[in-house]
Design goal:
Elements: E1 5-12, H1 18-27, E2 34-39, H2 46-55, E3 61-66, H3 79-88, E4 95-99, H4 107-113, E5 122-132, H5 133-137, H6 153-166, E6 170-174, H7 181-194, E7 200-203, E8 220-225, E9 228-233, E10 279-286, H8 292-305, E11 308-316, E12 323-329, E13 332-337, E14 347-354, H9 358-369
Parallel strand pairs: 1-4, 1-5, 2-3, 2-4, 5-6, 6-7
Antiparallel strand pairs: 8-9, 10-14, 11-12, 11-14, 12-13
Helix pairs in contact: 1-2, 8-9
Bound molecules: guanosine-5'-triphosphate.
Guanosine-5'-triphosphate binds next to helix 1 and strand 12.
Length: 374
Amino acid sequence: MKTLIPVTIVTGFLGSGKTTLLRSLIERRQTRRLALLINEFGEVAIDGALIRETAGTQAHIQIVDFPYGLIAYGDDALFIPTMQAIAARRFDVDHVLIETSGLALPTAVMEMLQSAELADDFILDATLAIVDTPLLLSNQFDVDGTDDTLETVANSVAALFERQLEYADVVVLNKIDGLDDAALLLAETALRQRAPNIRFLELAYDAKLDIRLALGLRLHQPTKIEHAHSYTLLPSMPCPQAGVLDNQSRLNGHAHSGLSGHSHGLRTHQHFHEQDPGWLSFVLRCDAAQHEAAFKAAMLAVSIAEPVLRSKGFICLADAAGTLLVQGVRTRLQLHAATEPGARTRSELVFIGYHLKRQQVAAKLSELTGTLWQ
Ligand SMILES: Nc1nc2c(ncn2[C@@H]2O[C@H](COP(=O)(O)OP(=O)(O)OP(=O)(O)O)[C@@H](O)[C@H]2O)c(=O)[nH]1
């Protein structure tokens, strides 16, 4: 019998730190040969470019971009052939990592892994949900109690966030640098209130996760019933080397607690977002050079005025001063010197939001930077 190739799904809301965490896993992969499938909601593959930057020319790391749409959802014709191609090169792959879009549920991939085309080659290792802990603590994932429809940003975000938690085996509290023990305990409580069935909780400082707690967890086993495949959860974390985190005491002994029966019930729901067309993404481009301070102030103003939940891309600075990588999560904006190969001549930004209006964002950004964005 063929050995099944383990697959880890990395899910989490927009900007929670999935790509950053994957980059740190690549750095710590030791001898593991990895295949990575990177799905972004926006049409420009920024995350794939960043992961390639980390992987460099390392052998035994394959990266496949899935820009546009949602990986393994109904209209994705790429997922099964890509996985089959990986299976055909199984001698060169120890583990597959799939980063889903921040607007996707992991269930679409989970379901596909159980399909007749893939179930004989792959096994779900675990689903990790990455959480932006400061956003969680600032109640940004709360339901808007004044409106019980999905037609508000808050309710749409809350619904998606809770479903991502619901289907995760391991929830990772990320962006916890700077948080004290009391804040971590509050975050754990807030998570458990939302998703009482969370099985394992991990901490990632600076998006770094102990690789033994991320890969090779073997939390699922295949079950074949006639011609249907399904996964059964294992009752505990069986990985022999999977010790507890060094810093587990920071959660006051609560880490790894909370095992309770939960079932993925894959066939019983629709994947979120197939029903919610309010999420939009577009790219704005600008040929004029940008001034860092003015650009930063303009982005902050745009993010406050418009429902921008995520922005990312590259800007070209004036006087050939180089390129900056732009990473915005709501109103938090980070600019870093980009180390892309090849010179860029055009700034390019992806915006993602709920009922976000392209023309309004373009007009405001153009006005505030004094350069034409379109
Ligand atoms: N301070 C801090 N910032 C982080 C951490 N992890 C990620 N970030 C920052 O958060 C921003 C978003 O990180 P990404 O890794 O791109 O998030 P993502 O989940 O892949 O984003 P999408 O794919 O767009 O949903 C970037 O500016 C990161 O540098 C962390 O642990 N601490």
